Each structure stands twice: as C-alpha cells, then as structure tokens.
Amino acid sequence: MNAMSDSDKTRVRNVLLPEIIVVNGNRYRKSTGDVFHGEDQTSSKDEIASSFPSAIIATANDNESKSSSENLAHVDKIVVPAQFMGKLIGHKGEFKRRLEADTETKISIPSRKDASEVVTIRGKELRAVESCRTRIELLIVNVMQSARPTHFLSIPLLSREFEQSLVHFRERSLELEQHGLSDELFTEFESFHLTLGTLKLYAKSQIRQAIEVLQMCKTVLHELLQESKDREIVVRGVEYMNDDPEAVDVLYAKVESTSLERATDIIVAAFREAGLLEKEFERDHVKLHATLINSKRQRAEISVNQRPNRHRNSFAASKILKTFKNYEFGRVQFDQLHLSKMAARRMNEYYASEAIVRF
After folding, report:
1. Quick check: helix, strand or coil at residue 8?
2. Residue 162 burial by Cβ neighbours in a 10 Å radius (0-12, 13-18, 19+)
3. With 70 as the cut, is the pLDDT of residue 112 above it?
4. Which of 290, 313, 289 shows the shortest CA–CA distance to 184?
5. Which of 190-194, 262-266, 268-272 is most confident?
6. For the whole model, what pTM was predicted?
7. What is the per-residue pLDDT for 9?
C-alpha cells in the first residue's frame, strides 16, 4: 500500500488538535462529536485535568506545580494507574521511603477509598520534585513494557452471512483432519472482528483520553468515507502468521477495502501520536485481519500436581489454506468502530466496549 497522503496526514493533525478552552487559567482540551460510552463519564474540573497523560499533568496545573507556596514547597502531580501503585509503594513501603530519601521529597499516595490515581510530590527544591517525578515515570514505563494489553480497536463482523460462513469453515476444516486442530481453537461467530490495534490503558485517564481520540476520529472518518463513497469491507481468503504451513499458530481471513486501509492508517496514527498505541514490528501500515483459528485457545488437560503448559501447540493448516484460498466469508459496511475491552465478553455476546463511534 502507498504511503499516507498529505490530505490524510492533515486529517490526523485535525484529530489531535481539538479546541482548547481555559478554565481558571488552566488549559483543557474540548471534546467534540457524539460517542456512546460504555460507562458514565463525569466532567468535573479535577477529572478533566486528570484525563491528560501523566507527562502533561504539570502543564495542566501549571500554577500549582511550578510555583512556590507559603512554606516554599514545590508541588507536582502525576497519574499512576491503580494497578501500579503497589510497585510505587514497594514491600512494606520500602520503595516509596527510599525514593523520598533519595530525592528529598514527600510522596502522597491516595487511599484505596478515594479511587484516585493522582500521586502528589512535594519538595523544598524544584529539581528534587522533578527528579522524583522522573523516577516515577521510569517506573511506570518499565512496568508498562511487560504489562498485557487491556483494550483493542475493533470492527465487528456479525452479519448472518459471516455466521453461515464460519460454520461452514469450521465443519469443513475439521473434516480435513489436520494435525493438532480441534474444535475449541476456532473463533466463535459472536466475537468475529477486525483488529486495528491493541492498547495498554491501565489508568482511568488513559481510557478517557482514548475515548476522546476515538470520538475526534469520527468526523474525519465520515469525511473520508464520503469522499471515497466506498464503505464495503470484503473478507476473502486465508493466511497464516508464521513460516511453516504444517506448524501454524494463528490462521486468519484477509481483508479487502481501500477506504478501510486509509481510515485505519489515520486512526492508528492518531492513537500513536497521542501516545496510546505502540508501533508493532516497525510496519508503516496495519495488517488488517480477522482471526479464524488461534492455538492459544487450546485447553490443556492438567493433573493436580502439574503446572500449566504455556507453550503453544501449533496445528497443521496446509489443506485448509488450499481449500479456502479464495473463499469469501462475507461483506459488511464500515460504519462503526469500537474501543473494546480485552477478554471482556459474555457467552453469545460481542466484547464489552468503553466506547463506540458510528459514522
């Protein structure tokens, strides 16, 4: 696929340059567009401020964080995901005490009852406060690198046509008697989707920011689709993600849609620029796919004294690849985008979503 056009790059900038409003001398981003929220969203001043990424908290609260108060204490605030607070505190508070001693600061951590993720740093010297903040940011980065994704951007593929195709695909593939293939590895129709990217949204502020970026994409995507006059997504043919067709981990359906490819580049670029989505495998463009079979779904039989085997057991797929090389699974209109929660799905239902935009 060709590189992103200048017009599409402008669309990405428009997504990331929303209107700025000023409240009591502080600058905040103004949300635009309609969006369905999976949970109720509040909009108090404190929550608006905490919706900024941690690196921008000091800017949003500039009057407090960069000036001296009557007791000459410099103050800064940083968002720390609730799941990471334990790392900041350490065993019996050891890490927190050592960090305070090293930087000559006082760190205030919210109680669990407060349900807050804002950590306050105070110190006599501004450079001490900044040093403490940097150490906390490095801690968050290190923990985040090994953390699993919590959300993903998805397009549901839930038409009657796809349901019938998946049933046929499952039945015919099992008839081919490929080594290592079992019924439990197949994607259930209710969860069939395209994945545009995975995200690690551990802080509430990150979730709110992701919802903002998503809803800001809405107008841009509407204009793009009006311009292309082509919303159809065609799912046809199969591919696998490793080198040996006799030892496959993931088998997926291929996607055909020029407008969707352009839209995906805009969406992904917007989330990357916002610091919410990492670039995978150094690819310039997202490889759109819909997973059909995944060896991770295999349920191993484990005895009482045996530890779970985390090794993936691959399956053979050469006959499936030949049989379904040009098989059309179905077509759907590209008219919605979900910010879905990872592994949050009830039986016979699609993934729960933080937000959905329709265009």
Report:
1. helix
2. buried
3. yes
4. 313
5. 190-194
6. 0.74
7. 63
